[in-house]
Amino acid sequence: MAASWLAVAAPAAPESGWTLSNDRFATRLELGPDARLRWLGFWDSKGKAIWSPDAEAGSSPIDVRIDNRFFNAQAQYRFVASFEYAARNGGAGRALVFHDLADEFEFELRLELYPGQPVLRQQLRAKNLRGVRVFVRANDVLPYSIEVEDTSYSVFRVNQWSVLDGGRNFEPLTTQLQMGQRVRLQTGAGGFQCTWLAVRKGNGEGLIAGWEFDGRADGLVTLTASALDLTVNINSLVHPVEPGEWYVAPAAFIGLFSGDWDEAGYVTQRFAEAALAPPVPDAKFPYMAWDSWGYEKNIDETKLRAEADLAAAAGAELFIVDLGWAKAMGDWHEDPAKFPSGLRAFSDYVHAKGMKFGLHFVISEAMAGSPVLREHPEWACSTSYNYHGAVSLALQHKPVQDWLIEEGVRIIKEYNVDWVLQDGQTMVKECRNAGLSYDPRDWNYMGDFALSRILEEIQAQTPGTVWENCANGGNMMTFRMVRNYVTSITNDASGSLGSRQGLYGASFPFPPRYTDRYMPAVPMNDYNTRSFIFGGPWILMNKLVDLQPEEFRFLQEEIGRYKEIRASVRDAKILHISARPLEGRTDVIQSYNGERDEAIAVVVRDDSAASRYTLRLRDLARDHTYLVTFADDPRTLTMTGAQLMERGISVNLPERESGEIVYVRRMVERQDSAPGGLSTVHGNLRKQEN
Description:
19% of the residues lie in helices and 34% in strands. It is α+β, with helices and mostly antiparallel strands and 690 residues long. Among the domains are: 7-276, Beta-galactosidase, Chain A, domain 5 (Distorted Sandwich), CATH 2.70.98.60; 574-680, Immunoglobulin-like. Strands 8, 9, 10, 11, 14, 17, 19, 20, 24 and 25 form a ten-stranded antiparallel sheet that branches. It has an eight-stranded parallel sheet with strand order 35-34-33-30-27-26-37-36. Strand 2 and strand 3 form a beta hairpin. The two termini are 47 Å apart.
């Protein structure tokens, strides 16, 4: 393995093989004597070959069909060039360029590694060298055929959120593969699963894989007698490529982990933060927020000023005006009946209270009577997704994109918006309109492209404004989403148990900041607040004006606790101590922040019989001494990591619906006292400014 974090080595025969490696990972490609491009395996930090290709079929990182020609492990290529490039967020890339033997197509395979990450990011670009238009008709963005060993194989994936098709709420799904069995993932906007999976051998060695595509794609894991086949195929792909133009495939990544599914999630999350995600806005993030949807569309500046006063007093840092502020969806100007002083005046009022101002924006919908659809009826999508009675827009059409970019920039600048809650229903829509600027058969690929173009161009013109993903809930949980947004909703105001269930599943593939939770009008008690306190942004929808003084004081205290733990949780490994939350159980979620050497655990009793829970923490240093305190319980304990993980601690939960927070902070020997004296490393968890 190379000592540097990225090395690219060639064998004795020049330009016939390439090894990319860092201190955690290596992979090798080879252009063989038969002119076929093959993937030769993944190696770990010790140089051990963990995953090798199927010897019979072979495996190539290129798998694309152009018209009726197939370019895959059986295709032949001629090497043309290789060059290095700077990847996003500090990564380093190597591009390998090939032609087919007829010189009709150029294939540029981009491979990226990031410091300390045992993960390869890859992306294919195909250039049309022919003199006529061609069509890309199929593309597998993760084509790996892996040699089967004498062991068992398990596949792990996580559902998205939806109220449709029987409902989903980030259920984790594990399948022990049987010979001939196939596990299918239906992913992307409106799909069933997140764009992520993990495969684990019986000895704990594992692969993680993710894809950066908001449109619909099918992931497949198939076990045969000779191979474990991984494929991710883009649905409904009929993409025209003009002479001299490029087809750019969605990027994907694949990497190594060892251990349980929490380890698979942690490797994925650290890679996502290192390679894909925008930086957090500031040290306070994730924010404590208030959102107006508790009033639904029945809002006005008088009500909202009263709520802003109380939200600021409670400790909120972000105030979001949800759906209902505009004249209509598609007519993105403030409703003068609701905001007679103007929405900018209200934004200024929120800012004067020391909070950021957030605004709901539905880029993919417009009411039938809105000016934009009266002027351009052809912009209505052929399929309507019925978001609050609106008509869906044909985002694939470039003039629609241009109009939305102009409107988005205007809204943000005119109303001084710090935070955009971008909402809608199924953001990549099946839109087969004829006569517009895209091939109607290519709606899926172009829908993904259109959404990203709109977001990227608005964000480039309004730097500093933060975007939150919502697709009528967490129904577009992809790694393209991670690139475009700073956070994402999980489930859509589904109550306390539903909040914990959403967090439980979403915190496997996604960093904790991509698990924001909306708290509806529930009683102000420790069962409810602690169901929302762990994870990304905590967003209240309670009518604060209806709270009694003692309820408001309790909320202030809980917001203070959230601010104490949020940074530690944001940068931590997430550990799923209990089974998935269900009614009648006690459930536990834990973070461990290795840099701080501290753990946070939230324990919630959901109408279970037992008033005590034995908590055995994970991932602590066995020989370190820790101070254990609680949010409510007055006990203070001093225990070693080994004791906390093996013997555990008893957590008191006196009510059938109650919650407790457990703080575990490392203690070190004091330098200013007698030997053996101990103090905590941080004293208390670092408090953030209110």
